[in-house]
Design goal:
The chain is built from four helices and six strands. The protein has a six-stranded mixed beta sheet. Strand 1 and strand 2 form a beta hairpin. The longest helix has 20 residues.
Length: 202
């Protein structure tokens, strides 16, 4: 059974602004990293971003009675109100996230009904909560909530981001290209001789 968009909005809606803030703050921290200029691999940026988000999630929800942190497989998922498991990821504009096809990933994206689910113990649904970068990957363009089934995105919507209209302070400049020349390789053009025939007045 797939989670419907209205149901997910009802369960996680109140958490969306805080989750968006966690993502924005993580990106801003990454942009201020003094080593950022040397991060010329997309994977390096994504790993640093993921670590920042996971640290913030631990800090924000470690003592919460409504949010249970599920740690494992190099990530932390959030079980909200015992009804929805949220995975925080980078995604594209469709709401699609890329991950290695591990058993944990397949179990998350391939939804199946629980045979023992009933009214007092409802089914636990899964959704992705992720940030979408602009084409240059220099800033966060939007944050989406998306439901998946295998390689398909069933639906997605823009998360309630209170900071969405605020000025972007976490813009990351692309890594600088190596200098094309140094003082030792600069070639000076010869100075024209004053007595050249083509410099003489006719």
């Amino acid at each position: 059974m797939f989670p419907t968009e209205p149901f997910i909005r009802h369960v996680i809606g109140s958490y969306e602004p805080e989750l968006c803030k966690i993502i924005h703050d993580a990106w801003d921290k990454l942009s201020r990293n003094p080593d950022r200029g040397s991060f010329d691999l997309k994977r390096t940026v994504a790993v640093n971003m993921h670590q920042n988000v996971m640290n913030a999630v631990r800090s924000a929800y470690a003592g919460s009675s409504e949010v249970r942190l599920l740690e494992g497989h190099e990530t932390i998922r959030l079980l909200l109100k015992k009804q929805v498991v949220v995975r925080l990821k980078k995604m594209d504009k469709r709401g699609y996230t890329r991950a290695q096809p591990t058993q944990a990933t397949l179990a998350f994206t391939n939804v199946s009904s629980l045979p023992y689910a009933y009214d007092e113990f409802p089914e636990i649904h899964t959704v992705d909560f992720g940030y979408v970068l602009n084409e240059l990957e220099t800033k966060i363009e939007t944050i989406l909530v998306a439901a998946r089934f295998g390689e398909s995105v069933i639906w997605s919507y823009v998360a309630n981001d209170d900071a969405g209209d605020a000025p972007v302070v976490g813009t990351i400049s692309p890594p600088l290209a190596p200098a094309s020349g140094t003082a030792a390789t600069i070639i000076k053009l010869p100075v024209a001789h004053k007595d050249r025939k083509d410099d003489q007045q006719k």
